[in-house]
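Q&A log
Question type: sequence-to-structure
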Amino acid sequence: MGGVSLQQVVPQIGALPSGPRDAISDVAGVTVGHMTRASGPVQTGVTVVRPHGGNPFTDKVPAAAAVINGFGKSIGLIQVEELGVLDTPIALTNTFSVGTLATAQIRHCIAQEPDTGRGLPTVNPLVFECNDGFLNDIQRLAVTESDYLIAHDAAGIDVAQGAVGAGRGMSSFQLKGGIGTASRLATVRSAVDKEDGTRLGSADELASTTTYTVGALVLANFGKLENLTVAGLHIGPTIAAQLKAHEAGPEKGSIIMLLATDAPLDSRQLRRLALRAGAGLARTGSVYGHGSGDIALAFSTAYTIPHLPARPMPAIALLHESQLDVLFQAAADSTEQAILNALWSAENVQGRDGHARTALTDLIPDWAAFARQFRMQTP
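Response status: OK
Response body:
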């Protein structure tokens, strides 16, 4: 992006404000690290999302996943569905590197807790993938276990986007895709008691309010160009005509959507939150095609769950179901924004066998001017 702020050039989604970084790391404690491999036919990498700075095996966070379309090869989802917690950081990579990163996560856990799998239960590695084989020579199996550790140890609050980490070789809407992130602030109103013991309704101006953060990070590798919709404008056919050369055929990509929040939710509520990522995905023009693996996972940092029964379980006041709508809105908006941020952050990449992807910003260098002209020309 040449140092230009994304917020100056990318269309902004929804009415909710973003956090200070407009990133998943606006949720306190969440960090992201990348390891990128970009050399000739090897265009791939690893991205790691850490839910907090400690060891998630001993201090787990509640989580849940929603499989919108299950064309994917992830590891760890069954146990997340059953137990509703994360054992490891979340790792993203290409399809053929899932096993390598799962092994890396197991080794890393054993290094931190040497009794893992012996006196302690086994660890549940959690790895998601998209197929970057158009740009990356995926058969080279270039990603290594050490790449996971590099990305893990590089995790911080400043999140690089676009053709970095696991997003290096990814395509989206037959353009260059990759990593995108965003956040939204959601203010929840709660009923409170008056001094005489009677209850104020949530609509009362004296009701208390609490602001929570919902952050999204996507690995965007999905979509057909003709379907591309940006901030409600169906621009795909216009861009297709401008690009001229792009492959036809069915959608074969995928997207992984990660949501973090500091709102106190349990795993059942987090699954409801994860499902709303699909609303943001659909707005960009996805139809969850047959060959597209579309998976969302949400976790909360509001509390941790101890691994061993010797430590007490937390006593948490969860949000009421009637208070979740604004969080659902934040999930949809931050997911849509993260997808756009991935497109706007991407750069042109040439990979294996001369395959190349064009960055959207090469085709739309000035979104405001493009959008004005598009609206004038569209009936």
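Response note: The chain has a mean pLDDT of 93.
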